[in-house]
Amino acid sequence: MTLAISNGSTARNPPFFPPELWITIFSLATDVPGLLSYDGPTSSDLPRSLVKEHEHKLLKESLITKRNIILVCRTWHVLATKFLYQSVLVTRPTTLSSLVTALDRRSSGAARSVHVGWWTRRLDVSIQDDHCEASDYAKLANIIRRFPNLSIVNLSMPMLPDNDSWLRQLPESVVMALVESCGPSLRVFDCSESILRPCRDDLMKLITAASNLSVLRCPICSPSARDKSPARLDMPVMPKLQSVSLMSVFLRDYLPDNKDANHFPALRKLTYDCIPPPFLDHTWKKFVRLSCANVTTVHLDYSLQADCECCSSLNDLVVYIRSWTEINSNLTLPPSVSYLGLHSKLRKAPAFHYKQLFVALHTISGSKLKTVRLLLADAVEDLRENHRALLESELADRTSCITFRIEDNEGHLLMA
Fold first, then answer.
1. Which of 157, 199, 217, 229 is the most exposed place for a label (fewest CB within 10 A)?
2. Measured between alpha carbons, how far apart are the two ends of the chain, in Å?
3. What angle do CA 297, 259, 207 make, to 5 degrees?
4. How many Cβ atoms from other residues are within 10 Å of residue 296's Cβ?
């Protein structure tokens, strides 16, 4: 009952609703599971660009809900403000200015035991604007220093107007802001899609400060612009690193001075872009042998040439290719692989592309292979709707030599 009528027909105020219950309700209403903290390797096998696109969509929807909540009344505003700042998404340079203003305004208001930046766990900066200025990066560094408990940082930054197109170096001020403000709390650092990226020395400083880092996606380091480069900083031991993204031509940036040491003892997932023809083949094999003995998942970009046989614990292999015609026949998978994920960039393809795919599947060799999954939903839809006859002729034959399950992007049989 919310109202009671006295002898004078006067309505009393509704009973007090504990703030703890409101906070629980707000938390449930705005929650984005798995996006505000690192709870283990992501279960998605899609390319990182598609995963980020989906994550940003969820974060924007949650942000709309949060903004609506704090506008209801003054009490809700006070209780829900911490949820508003749990995740910060920046997509335009102008957002940086407005965010600095908002943070200054909230810190200069009534006395608070905790600044709103204390609640921020995730920062995504995805700016596509070509007119980002040096002052914008200074603002970004300023903002990062307001967030001492950042756990997840995703950066995708455009070129500076006067930046050398060869260097493409993320300003040192941004990296040092991360080092000095939130190093111990940082669990995920991703600049894999950024035009600007840290130079190697800055990256080494960051991962040295981030002793709890679990995911590192920075496959390319910018060359240093310093005239007199100091002694090469050694790759630190990263005892909690579970997932790393590397590129063949920049592999040596991640190798320790002691080439016989394993600095990634907890590594379980490897994303590797091997530019054909294979670069540093001997170096790659030695790295795999030393650091990837416990790796269970490998994602390969545009290549099936990388040698994964030394990954004795490898179970899941995911390959990203430009088209199905890049899959050769008579492929031999590492003997431990039971799951193969395939992703083509082409959303629609002519029949002969799919024909090449099925030729490869008919001739593939993998002693423990149980499942092959086609990961792109649009490609699955195209195959089912526009190439149904080919699909049926390839998979309906019960005498087919295919002994494993072929699935669509949702894990259902490709041809039910």
1. 229
2. 54
3. 65
4. 16
CB 143 within 8 A of CB 106: no
Residues 407, 361: Cα–Cα separation, whole Å: 12
In eight-state DSSP terms, residue 313 is: T
Token code pair at residue 164: 């050398």
**Which has the closest alpha carbon to 212: 258, 150, 170?**
150
Q: Is the pLDDT of residue 219 over 90?
A: no
What confidence tens digit (pLDDT) does each residue in 272-283 have?
887 655 555 677
236 vs 155: CA distance, rounded Å:
22
Q: What is the dihedral of CA 223, 259, 175, 180, to 10 degrees?
A: -150
β-sheet bridge partners, residue 298:
270, 317
What count of other Cβ atoms lies within 10 Å of the Cβ of residue 71? 10
**Pair of tokens at residue 365:** 């060799």
Q: Which residues contact 74 (CB under 8 A, 6 or more apart)?
A: none
Predicted model pTM: 0.85
Distance CA 64, CA 78 (A): 17
